[in-house]
């Protein structure tokens, strides 16, 4: 188990082996930090930018993130956003050479259908990003028109769900397997389990790409990767709410 460091919100973990669960966020504590020291709820100042809902994606509770476009209380870190970040959980950080599985469940609460008056990208709902890097976020799961799409480290995209309006206000489950590399030996593979499905089905795959979009501490850059989830960006005059649950990071090597 991770050990909390005195006077710190970060935790450390000994070396992992294949199959280890590095992070398990199920919100069964009934709190927005899921009882995990250092896990944030949201940097937005609105009281309802992050709150607990029931039932969850599997258990009793889940977290809701909310953004109201045009209301400054939902503006944080340079954009309209409300996100939970694992940035301060050092034992969850990824670096080149690791293979990791990321899982999350999401429910898009009362989202209207996309219209041509909006931009194509509506919101980002899950990211694996590299700290202090101007390069592309290597894994970004986003709402693109009425689809759920992944944008990857090489800027390529793939559609995971053709029309999320078919699953309005229902839980959808996603799995992302990544080999983190600084050369062209990495991969990113995604899997879905949608309402009515009993198991995961592969929805996209790309191999032989660089997946870590920044220099590591070994190379003097001091950069590391971390996961975050919530609502990042909403179209003009829209309120965006997403529920998240069952966020897990699992070691594949």
Q: What does this protein look like?
A:
It is a single chain. The protein is mainly β. The protein has a domain at 88-251: Sandwich (Jelly Rolls). Helices cover 0% and strands 44% of the residues. It has no helices and 17 strands. Strands 3, 4, 5, 8, 13, 14, 15 and 17 form an eight-stranded antiparallel sheet that branches. Strands 6-7-16-9-10-11-12 form a seven-stranded antiparallel sheet, with no helix packed on it. The protein has a two-stranded antiparallel ribbon with strand order 1-2. Strand 1 (3-4) and strand 2 (11-12) form a beta hairpin. The model is unreliable at 1-13 (pLDDT under 50).
SSE topology:
Layout: E1 3-4, E2 11-12, E3 21-25, E4 50-53, E5 62-68, E6 75-76, E7 79-85, E8 99-108, E9 121-130, E10 139-144, E11 147-152, E12 157-161, E13 172-179, E14 186-193, E15 201-209, E16 225-232, E17 239-251
Antiparallel strand pairs: 1-2, 3-17, 4-5, 5-17, 6-7, 7-16, 8-13, 8-17, 9-10, 9-16, 10-11, 11-12, 13-14, 14-15
Offer a concise description of the structure.
By secondary structure, the protein is mostly beta strands. Helices cover 0% and strands 44% of the residues.
What pattern of helices and strands is seen along the backbone?
Answer: EEEEEEEEEEEEEEEEE
CATH domain class name of the domain at 88-251? Mainly Beta
Low-pLDDT residue spans: 1-13
Distinct helical segment count = 0
Q: Taking all residues together, what is the mean pLDDT?
A: 91
Query: From the helix content, strand content and strand pairing, which structural class follows?
Result: mainly beta
The fraction of residues assigned to DSSP E strands is 35-45%
Instruction: Kindly state the number of beta strands.
Output: 17
Q: How far apart are the first and last residues' alpha carbons, in Å?
A: 18 Å
The helix content is under 10%
How can the largest sheet be summarized?
Answer: 8 strands, antiparallel
**Gross CATH architecture of the domain at 88-251:** Sandwich
General form: globular
Classify the fold: give the CATH topology of the domain at 88-251: Jelly Rolls
Radius of gyration: 17 Å
């Amino acid at each position: 188990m991770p050990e909390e460091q005195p006077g710190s919100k970060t935790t450390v973990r000994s070396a992992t082996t294949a199959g280890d669960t590095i992070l398990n966020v199920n919100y069964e504590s009934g709190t927005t930090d899921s009882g995990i020291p250092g896990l944030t709820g949201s940097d937005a100042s609105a009281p309802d930018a992050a709150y607990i809902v029931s039932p969850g994606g599997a258990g009793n509770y889940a977290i809701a993130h909310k953004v109201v476009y045009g209301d400054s209380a939902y503006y944080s870190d340079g954009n309209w956003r409300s996100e939970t970040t694992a940035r301060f959980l050092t034992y969850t950080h990824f670096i080149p050479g690791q293979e990791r599985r990321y899982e999350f469940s999401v429910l898009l609460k009362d989202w209207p259908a996309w219209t041509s008056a909006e931009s194509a990208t509506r919101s980002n709902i899950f990211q694996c990003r590299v700290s202090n890097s101007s390069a592309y976020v290597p894994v970004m799961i986003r709402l693109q028109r009425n689809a759920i799409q992944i944008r990857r480290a090489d800027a390529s995209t793939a559609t995971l769900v053709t029309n999320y309006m078919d699953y309005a206000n229902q839980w959808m489950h996603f799995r992302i397997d990544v080999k983190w590399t600084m050369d062209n030996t990495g991969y990113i593979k995604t899997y879905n389990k949608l309402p009515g499905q009993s198991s995961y089905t592969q929805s996209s795959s790309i191999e032989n790409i660089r997946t870590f979009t920044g220099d590591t501490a070994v190379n003097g850059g001091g950069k590391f990767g971390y996961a975050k989830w919530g609502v990042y960006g909403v179209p003009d005059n829209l309120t965006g709410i997403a529920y998240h649950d069952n966020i897990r990071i699992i070691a594949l090597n």
